[in-house]
UniProtKB/TrEMBL annotation:
Organism: Streptomyces bambusae
PROSITE patterns registered for this protein in UniProt: TAT
SUPFAM superfamilies: alpha/beta-Hydrolases
Mitochondrion in keyword set: no
Name under which the protein is recorded: Acyl-CoA:diacylglycerol acyltransferase
Keywords: Acyltransferase, Transferase
A Pfam family that the UniProt record links to this protein: Esterase
Enzyme class: transferase
Family per record: Belongs to the mycobacterial A85 antigen family.
Length: 341
């Protein structure tokens, strides 16, 4: 296997390249209002104030001043700092007892990356009038939506935080459909990989999965995406630790997370893929570009086609960027696939 040894500066620049095309904001922008006493209710009940403790999460900061946008910061043993989560509610959520489907929307990587870049791009306007709850969680600067093999910066178990803690917490605190047909997952770049990974690794959780310029293959081309995940995470998140192990990988972990090795688990789901053809691409490091994302998505598409699994794929001019018109098209398809409010 080819080993890459980029400098810390190059790795941080590489991770930042994932988000530079869309102009990210700062990593710590949660404006919290004073916490108030709260009680929680089950997913089938009209949700009241969010529970302070539950599913391994404890609210330490909140801002609920906006009737649509709720901002929370949690203490959790899964993460060595207090990750934040934005919950964007549909118009009219407070007017009655309807339940809603949920879209989990994952951000890309970078030294300043967090959930807020969707705010910067305009997710509030995109979802205006749409009957869906949108959950935008932190995923680390280069967390890769994974429980790393090792971390020297404290716990960074993003998969545990998202799947074992956050998903059930959302269903317990908001009027959602806590079922397969009530959830979709989508993401950009590293977040697109996370969406593909979670949809296959937890096949009963998400009825729709979307990857906007998200890598889909960890092993192709001498495992260049796996090496990149290791090096970017080592520099930006894990203080020298790695997602998949180095110099030898944890092969079982790679296979469990690799979308192209878990194709059968996409059967019955709506699948939406977007990649650039490489014109004007943003480079990551050592010459790796959006063309690598495109090649991995083509590999996945070929396997889906061979398995007779329907999917929608788009190849667009340009590089590693978030294409808002295609996201809006994707959102319409998501709402068609999910159980209606």
């Amino acid at each position: 296997m080819i080993e890459h040894h980029p400098t810390r500066r190059r790795v941080l620049r590489a991770a930042g390249g994932l988000s530079a095309a869309v102009g990210l904001g700062g990593a710590d922008v949660l404006s919290a209002a004073p916490a108030t006493a709260a009680t929680g209710t089950g997913a089938g009940e009209p949700a009241g104030e969010p529970v302070e403790d539950g599913f391994g999460l404890r609210i330490v900061d909140r801002d609920e001043s906006d009737p649509r946008l709720r901002r929370y910061r949690f203490a959790t043993g899964a993460i060595g700092w207090n990750p934040a989560v934005n919950v964007l509610l549909p118009d009219g959520y407070h007017d009655g007892g309807r339940r809603y489907p949920v879209l989990y929307l994952f951000h890309g990587g970078g030294p300043t990356a967090d959930f807020t870049w969707f705010d910067c791009l305009g997710v509030r306007a995109w979802t205006a009038g749409k009957p869906v709850v949108v959950v935008m969680p932190d995923g680390g600067h280069a967390g890769w939506y994974a429980n790393p093999v090792n971390s020297h910066a404290g716990p960074r178990k993003w998969e545990t935080f998202h799947m074992a803690q956050l998903v059930p917490w959302i269903d317990a605190n908001f009027r959602t459909y806590a079922e397969l047909d009530g959830r979709a997952v989508a993401g950009f770049s590293m977040g697109g990989f996370g969406a593909l990974k979670y949809a296959a690794k937890y096949p009963g959780h998400f009825a729709s999965v979307s990857a906007h310029s998200g890598p889909a293959s960890l092993r192709r081309d001498f495992g260049v995406v796996t090496h990149w995940a290791n090096t970017s995470a080592a520099a930006a998140d894990l203080a020298g630790g790695t997602v998949y192990g180095a110099p030898r990988w944890n092969e079982a972990r790679v296979s469990a997370d690799n979308p192209v090795e878990n194709v059968e688990n996409y059967r019955g789901k709506r699948i939406f893929l977007v990649a650039g053809t490489g014109d004007g691409q943003v480079e990551w490091f050592d010459g790796i570009t959006e063309k690598q994302v495109l090649a991995g998505q083509r590999e996945l598409r070929g396997l889906l086609l061979s398995a007779g699994i329907a999917h929608e794929a788009h190849e667009e001019p340009g590089g590693h960027e978030f294409r808002v018109p295609l996201f809006l098209h994707d959102l319409s398809g998501i709402l068609t696939r999910l159980r209606p409010a």
